[in-house]
Amino acid sequence: MKDINDTTKASRLDDQYYEVYANYYVSFLDAYSEENVEFWGLTPQNEPDHGLEYGFFNSMGWYPSEMLEWIVGYLGPALDAAGYE
């Protein structure tokens, strides 16, 4: 799902997987909801710029413009469609 074929290094999410990743967040919330756990907030990622430095550790980074596109175009609509506010 990342923009390089190496799971042991820092990279970014390949944009062809934006919808899949948004749906993963919905699945996460749904699974907790089934156990009667409610959330009042959600963050897209901890330290989103950390994975932009292509180093020797597994992480994923976001440029601000990419994160904005993903939240507005994919995560927000997926949450709305699933009934989350």
From TrEMBL:
GO terms for molecular function: glucosylceramidase activity. Residues 12-82 form the Glycosyl hydrolase family 30 TIM-barrel domain. Pfam families: Glyco_hydro_30. It catalyses: a beta-D-glucosyl-(1<->1')-N-acylsphing-4-enine + H2O = an N-acylsphing-4-enine + D-glucose. PANTHER family: GLUCOSYLCERAMIDASE, LYSOSOMAL ACID GLUCOSYLCERAMIDASE. Its EC number is 3.2.1.45. Belongs to the glycosyl hydrolase 30 family. GO terms for cellular component: membrane. One of its GO terms (biological process) is glucosylceramide catabolic process. Keywords: Glycosidase, Hydrolase, Lipid metabolism, Signal, Sphingolipid metabolism. It comes from Timema cristinae. Coiled coil: none annotated. This is Glucosylceramidase. InterPro entries: GH, Glyco_hydro_30, Glyco_hydro_30_TIM-barrel.
